[in-house]
Design goal:
244 residues; mainly alpha; 2% strand; disordered C terminus; 7TM_GPCR_serpentine_rcpt_Str; Seven TM Receptor; transmembrane
């Protein structure tokens, strides 16, 4: 999420022709490179310290892990908030650590979205104000394509990652068990890396044309074998045909 925010800041600076990009010095580079590291460090701290493995959480999920995955708790590694911890007397106690941990996570995600929306709107306004000359028209088209590709690439993790995870944690916060439906999150997260490059390939014209030309001009295996055979016959030898 931090990297997405940095993308929108950088895209706005490029579209606006900001002097901040005329020369990269140490502090400018550090800002772009260290922000994702800081976000990742905060998330690591939350996962390890606030919502990491705890005896109470382990006892709560022990039977579920055994029934669902046929695994013993001792053979697994897990992280996750346990908002309502059951006490020996049957009452429930709110776990402050889980509340603080997930609030920190939502704060990280929210700050990234606010950055994306703010600089995305400024970038769109900046592109719309470009003077319609020949050079600026090409620049406007390029910036527009890159902008919408970036917007689409931002929506993909929102739909496939953050929305399902948010729903799962929301049901947990309401003390509602959704059972095996929580496994759907693993499938959407696994699909994200495969789908993420598609907006750039399909939206940016030069990439789209290259893909179209490749698909239309790529020789079929049978045709390629016939061409290799004919070439070998012309040279008097067809003993070695490149593998298909």
């Amino acid at each position: 999420m931090a990297i997405f925010g940095m993308h929108f800041i950088y895209r706005y600076l490029v579209a606006a022709g900001s002097k901040l990009l005329e020369k990269f010095n140490l502090w400018k580079s550090a800002f772009f490179l260290l922000t994702p590291v800081v976000y990742g460090s905060i998330w690591g701290w939350v996962a390890y310290d606030l919502v990491g493995q705890q005896p109470s959480t382990g006892e709560y999920i022990r039977n579920n892990i055994l029934e669902t995955f046929d695994l013993k708790l001792e053979d697994t590694v897990y992280i996750g908030p346990y908002f309502y911890q059951k006490q020996p007397n049957g009452s429930y106690e709110i776990d402050i650590q889980s509340i603080v941990g997930m609030s920190t996570v939502y704060l990280i995600v929210s700050s990234s979205f606010i950055t994306i929306i703010y600089f995305g709107v400024k970038c769109y306004k900046c592109i719309s104000k470009l003077v319609p000359s020949t050079d600026s028209y090409r620049s406007k088209q390029l910036q527009s394509h890159l902008f919408w590709a970036l917007v689409t690439q931002t929506l993909i993790p929102v739909i496939l990652m953050h929305t399902p995870v948010t729903l799962v944690y929301a049901f947990a916060l309401m003390d509602k068990d959704i059972g095996m439906l929580s496994g759907f999150v693993s499938m959407t997260i696994a699909a994200y890396p495969a789908i993420d490059p598609l907006p750039s390939i399909l939206i940016i014209p030069c990439y789209r044309r290259a893909l179209k030309n490749y698909l239309m001009c790529c020789p079929k295996p049978k045709k390629r074998m016939e061409e290799n055979t004919a070439a070998g016959a012309r040279t008097g030898s067809i003993s070695s045909i490149p593998p298909i």
